[in-house]
C-alpha cells in the first residue's frame, strides 16, 4: 500500500536524509521548508510495484554547490522548467517523479511538485554520491536517457543519449551559468525501468531512519544509537588532527583519539569515504558513514568537522543495489576516484 506522509513527518525525513548523505549532499533545511509550504498534505508516495510500469517518470535534484542554495534561494516550484524541457524533447508528459538523489538537500525533491505528478519511492542513487554519471540509470547503461539542467534566466541545457561522463561534464559546466547551482532532471525512462535500475524505498528508509534517530535524543550510549539506526558503531573519540591530502581529487583525513587509546581515521572527499582504526580498514563507500557530534546529536557534513569535536562514527548499510552486481560496486568504491587502498571487502 502507498506511504502517506504528513507535515509532521518532515523533521524525521530531514534527519533521515542527513544520515543518508554520508557527510555530503547538503543540509535539507531549505528544501524541507519548501516542502512544508508546497502541495496538499498529506502526500501519497507510491512504491514502484504499485504503479503501471509504463508510466513515464522524471528524476529530479539540485546539482552544484549546496552552500550557494542558501544564497540564491529556489522558488516553490523549482523543477517545472527542467521537467517541461524533457517533455518537449520527448513529446510526452512526465506522469511521475522520483528523487535523483535521495539524500541531503535533494531528499525532498520529489515531494515538491507532488500536486502535479505521481510520486514514486525510488531514486537514482540511494545515498549521496558526488558525480552525475553515478546515477543508476547511467551505471546500468539504460538507453534513451535525457538530462536537463537550468542555466539561469529560464535557460535550459539538454543532453540526449550522451555518454555518462559527458552528462557529468556538460551539466557541471551548465551550473556555472546558473550561479553555482541549478535544478536538474533526468527522463527517458518509465516506472518499470525503476524496478531494475533504481534504488527502491528511499523515502520510506529516510522516514524510518529519522524516526529512529529522533527516538535517540535522550540516549548517550553510542552503541545503542548505532543499533537503533540499524548500523554498527565504528568508534568514537575527539578530533585531534585534520589534514588535506594530495591526490587525484580533494581528500581530507580526520584523526580521532578514542577513550580506549585507539586511533580512528576518517577519509573524506565531498562525502565520508572510508574509516580506519589503528591502521585497519573498517569500511568504505558504498557503506553510508554517519558522523555525529556527541554533545548535540547533530549529524555532521564533512565541512562541519573541526578540531576538538567529540564524535561518534556509525556505519549504516549501503543500498543493496550497489552491491548486487560487480559493475555497480566498481562505480561506488573509493578506487573509482583514484583513492587506492581504501576499498573494503
The SS-based structural class is alpha+beta
Oligomer: single chain
Low-confidence stretches: none
Please tell me the total number of domains. Answer: 2
How much strand? 25-35%
Instruction: Report how far the terminal alpha carbons are from each other.
Output: 37 Å
Number of strands: 17
SS element count, helices: 10
Described by the principal axes of the CA atoms, the overall outline is globular
CATH-wise, what's the superfamily of the largest domain? CV3147-like domain
Helix-strand topology string: EHHEEHHEEHEEHEHEHHEEEEEEEEH
The average pLDDT score comes to: 95
State the CATH topology of the largest domain: CV3147-like fold
What percentage of residues falls in helices of 4 or more residues?
Answer: 10-25%
Query: What is the CATH architecture annotation of the largest domain?
Result: 3-Layer(aba) Sandwich
Give the class-level CATH name of the largest domain: Alpha Beta
Query: What is the rounded Rg?
Result: 19 Å
Q: Could you give a short account of the major beta sheet?
A: 9 strands, mixed
Summarize the structure.
The chain is of the alpha+beta class and about 350 residues long. The chain has helices at about 10-20, 30-35, 65-70, 80-90, 135-140, 165-175, 190-195, 200-215, 220-230, 325-330, and strands at about 5, 45, 55-65, 95-100, 120-125, 145-150, 155-160, 180-190, 200, 230-245, 250-255, 265-270, 270-275, 280-285, 290-295, 300, 310-315. It is built from 10 helices and 17 strands.
Amino acid at each position: 500500500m502507498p506511504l502517506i506522509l504528513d507535515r509532521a513527518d518532515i523533521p524525521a525525513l530531514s534527519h533521515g536524509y542527513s544520515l543518508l548523505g554520508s557527510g555530503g549532499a547538503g543540509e535539507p533545511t531549505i528544501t524541507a521548508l519548501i516542502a512544508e509550504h508546497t502541495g496538499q498534505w498529506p502526500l501519497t508516495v507510491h512504491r514502484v510495484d504499485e504503479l503501471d510500469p509504463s508510466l513515464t517518470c522524471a528524476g529530479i535534484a539540485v546539482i552544484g554547490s549546496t552552500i550557494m542554495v542558501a544564497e540564491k534561494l529556489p522558488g516553490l516550484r523549482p523543477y517545472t522548467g527542467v521537467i517541461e524541457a524533457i517533455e518537449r524533447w520527448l513529446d510526452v508528459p512526465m506522469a511521475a517523479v522520483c528523487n535523483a538523489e535521495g539524500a541531503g538537500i535533494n531528499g525532498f525533491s520529489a515531494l515538491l511538485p507532488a500536486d502535479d505528478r505521481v510520486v514514486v519511492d525510488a531514486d537514482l542513487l540511494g545515498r549521496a554520491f558526488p558525480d552525475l554519471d553515478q546515477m543508476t540509470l547511467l551505471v546500468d547503461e539504460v538507453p534513451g536517457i535525457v538530462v536537463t539542467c537550468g542555466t539561469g534566466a529560464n535557460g535550459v541545457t539538454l543532453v540526449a543519449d550522451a555518454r555518462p561522463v559527458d552528462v557529468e561534464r556538460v551539466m557541471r559546466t551548465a551550473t556555472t551559468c546558473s550561479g553555482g547551482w541549478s535544478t536538474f532532471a533526468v527522463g527517458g525512462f518509465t516506472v518499470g525501468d525503476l524496478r531494475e535500475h533504481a534504488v527502491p524505498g528511499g523515502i520510506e528508509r529516510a522516514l524510518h531512519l529519522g524516526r529512529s534517530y529522533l527516538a535517540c535524543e535522550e540516549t548517550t550510549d553510542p552503541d545503542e544509537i548505532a543499533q537503533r539506526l540499524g548500523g554498527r558503531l565504528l568508534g568514537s573519540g575527539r578530533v585531534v588532527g585534520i589534514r588535506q591530502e594530495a591526490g587525484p581529487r580533494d581528500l581530507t583525513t580526520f584523526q580521532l583519539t578514542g577513550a580506549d587509546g585507539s586511533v580512528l581515521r576518517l577519509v573524506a572527499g565531498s562525502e565520508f569515504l572510508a574509516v580506519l582504526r589503528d591502521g585497519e580498514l573498517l569500511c568504505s563507500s558504498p557503506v553510508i558513514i554517519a558522523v555525529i557530534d556527541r554533545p548535540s546529536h547533530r549529524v555532521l557534513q564533512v565541512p562541519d568537522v573541526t578540531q576538538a569535536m567529540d564524535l561518534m562514527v556509525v556505519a549504516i548499510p549501503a543500498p543493496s543495489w550497489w552491491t548486487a552486481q560487480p559493475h555497480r560496486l566498481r562505480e561506488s568504491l573509493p578506487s573509482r576516484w583514484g583513492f587506492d587502498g581504501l576499498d573494503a571487502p
